[in-house]
């Protein structure tokens, strides 16, 4: 197993349990203690983890809070972004909406103002919202359920998506960096987003200001692969200038609107 693959597996374990032991990693990955120590050193140098006696824990900046808690974080900015995003949906569209909390606010916005849509999602929270509050056609992607994110991932999800093509897709990510692009803390969710990006005619990334300048382990997309970014007026201006050189359209949600 290559170092990159081992380190992704280590990070996956950390996202699930928040800590890992060197002895457990040696046994599961079938490598030497020195190899694991080197992997942990590399991950710490990148800012992903913090080494502790006998193992490692996640760096606090990479700990993903529960979905229900994150809904209220930067809610005003997220709702503003969602309102801007909804304006790009046309009647009769097939729309992919991913698992993020901004995506939930987009769904609520569409339910208020749109008609005759087909919603495709891997989010249980969004599926429940659509079922309870609209007559939209709903396609829920199956797969392994991530309880803390209320999303579906894994091989069943990707097999389903191989046969799906949509008019417009709305995506989010845990981090945005002008050089490293859009990244996510979870490998499975990054894989779902990467595949759906290939199956959408138009794609929109919704990112609030707090995600700017950070990097997570798993790339969702390069900056130039996303044709439209929607963010809020608190986003870092210098970073926005760099991003605008690589993407077709940047839309700013303003509090006055």
Description:
With 257 residues, the chain is an alpha/beta fold. The chain has ten helices and 15 strands. It has helices at residues 3-17, 22-29, 33-45, 67-70, 75-86, 101-113, 124-133, 155-161, 187-198, 237-244; strands at 19-21, 49-52, 55-58, 94-97, 118-121, 137-140, 144-146, 151-153, 166-171, 175-177, 181-184, 200-206, 218-221, 228-232, 249-253. The strands form four sheets. The protein has a seven-stranded parallel sheet, sandwiched between helices. α5 packs across α6 (101-113) and α6 packs parallel to α7. The N and C termini lie far apart (52 Å). The model has no long low-confidence stretch (mean pLDDT 88). This is DeoR/GlpR family DNA-binding transcription regulator. Keywords: DNA-binding, Transcription, Transcription regulation. GO terms for molecular function: DNA binding. Residues 3-58 form the HTH deoR-type domain. Pfam families: DeoRC, HTH_DeoR.
């Amino acid at each position: 197993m290559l170092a990159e693959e081992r380190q992704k597996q280590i990070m996956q374990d950390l996202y699930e349990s928040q800590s890992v032991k060197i002895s457990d990693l040696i046994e599961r990955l079938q490598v030497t203690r020195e190899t694991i120590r080197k992997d942990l050193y590399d991950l710490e140098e990148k800012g992903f983890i913090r080494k502790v006696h006998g193992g490692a824990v996640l760096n606090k900046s990479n700990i993903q809070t529960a979905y229900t808690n994150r809904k209220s974080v930067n809610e005003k900015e997220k709702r503003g972004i969602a309102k801007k995003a909804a304006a790009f949906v046309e009647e009769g569209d097939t729309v992919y909406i991913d698992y993020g909390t901004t995506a939930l606010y987009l769904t609520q916005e569409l339910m208020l103002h749109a008609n005759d849509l087909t919603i495709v999602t891997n989010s249980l929270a969004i599926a429940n919202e659509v079922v309870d509050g609209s007559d939209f056609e709903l396609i829920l992607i199956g797969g392994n359920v991530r309880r803390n994110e209320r999303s579906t991932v894994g091989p069943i999800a990707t097999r389903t998506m191989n046969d799906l093509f949509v008019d417009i897709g709305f995506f989010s990510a845990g981090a945005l960096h002008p050089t490293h692009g859009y990244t996510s803390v979870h490998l499975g969710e990054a894989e779902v987003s990467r595949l759906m990006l290939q199956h959408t005619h138009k794609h929109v990334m919704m990112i609030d200001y707090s995600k700017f300048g950070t990097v997570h382990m798993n790339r969702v997309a390069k900056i130039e692969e996303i044709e439209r970014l929607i963010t809020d007026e608190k986003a870092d201006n210098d970073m926005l200038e760099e991003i605008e050189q690589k993407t077709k359209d940047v839309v700013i949600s303003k509090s006055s609107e």
